[in-house]
Design a protein that fits this description.
This protein is α+β, with helices and mostly antiparallel strands. The protein is 26% helix and 25% strand. The protein has one domain (3-176, 201-212): Aminopeptidase, CATH 3.40.630. It has 6 helices and 9 strands; from the N terminus they run βααβββαβαββββαα. The N and C termini lie far apart (43 Å). Bound molecules: coenzyme A. Coenzyme A binds next to helix 1, strand 4, helix 3 and helix 4.
């Protein structure tokens, strides 16, 4: 697969269901039996924090095979000063096209666009394996935490400029765009719009549990 084979472009309204289906294919059974990322995308686009200028898809032979989305979030320091940042996610690549450099390409492009828009810091939760090669570092290295000085192992920070963060303690304030995903009945109802798919256990769910429940203390 070379660069001329695919198109990278902004998502349009007519792509919505196809992108949601892609997310469902990519995330299915990954973190728990089934997934909710297709519903998350669905509600995220309607949320005030959503950033349409950073909503990119990759098209290959007329089909959407990868996507990335961003939303607005905040860092607040101990004196109450605020810094506008972006939260990245979801990002996904269709299982048939993974490990070919597509997420790398999507991230490099959107990091550049985010910087042009005036953002110098990207934060997301995730498996560090997927992100350290893109220059993400542990939140602890940048002194970014949750209230109560909690530094989750899966909270990853990408500084888009060398001087983006100056070492002072920042508290991360994510937006609440994912709150509707807690409504399991709503997720189930939305899932009925897609072809039937079997929920099952797989080892990545334990990996997700470990990453999402770990914090860095020292
Ligand atoms: C995670 C995901 C987005 C990566 O996309 P991708 O196009 O397959 O990744 P790339 O081929 O661009 O690889 C990017 C880098 O990450 C590394 N990488 C990718 N997947 C990895 C994995 N499972 N384990 C370890 N390293 C991995 C690659 O070695 C590569 O490093 P390099 O650029 O230095 O060579 C994709 O696998 C996916 O959609 N997974 C399911 C959904 C998901 O987990 N999304 C992320 C939520 S946290």
């Amino acid at each position: 697969m070379n660069k001329n084979d695919y198109i990278i472009r902004l998502e349009t309204e007519k792509d919505y269901r196809e992108t949601e289906n892609l997310a469902r294919e990519a995330f299915w059974n990954l973190s728990f039996p089934g997934c909710n990322e297709h519903y998350f995308i669905h509600v995220l686009r309607e949320h005030e924090a959503f950033i349409p200028e950073l909503d990119y898809v990759v098209e290959y032979e007329g089909k959407i095979i990868a996507c990335v989305m961003y939303s607005k979030a905040k860092l607040v320091d101990e004196n109450g000063n605020e810094k506008n940042i972006v939260s990245m996610g979801p990002i996904c690549v269709h299982p048939d096209f993974q490990r070919k450099g597509l997420s790398r390409m999507l991230l490099e492009l959107t990091f550049e666009k985010a910087l042009e828009m005036g953002y110098d810091t990207v934060i997301n939760f995730g498996n560090p394996d997927n992100y350290v090669a893109r220059g993400y570092k542990s939140c602890k290295k940048y002194n970014v935490c949750f209230e109560g000085d909690v530094f989750p192992a899966a909270l990853l920070v990408k500084a888009l400029k060398e001087d983006a963060l100056d070492g002072r303690k920042w508290f991360y304030h994510p937006n609440n765009a994912d709150a509707p995903c807690d409504d399991e009945a709503a997720v189930e109802e939305f899932d009925k719009l897609f072809p039937p798919k079997e929920k099952a256990w797989q080892p990545s769910q334990e990996e997700f549990y470990i990453h999402s429940h770990s914090v860095i203390n020292r």
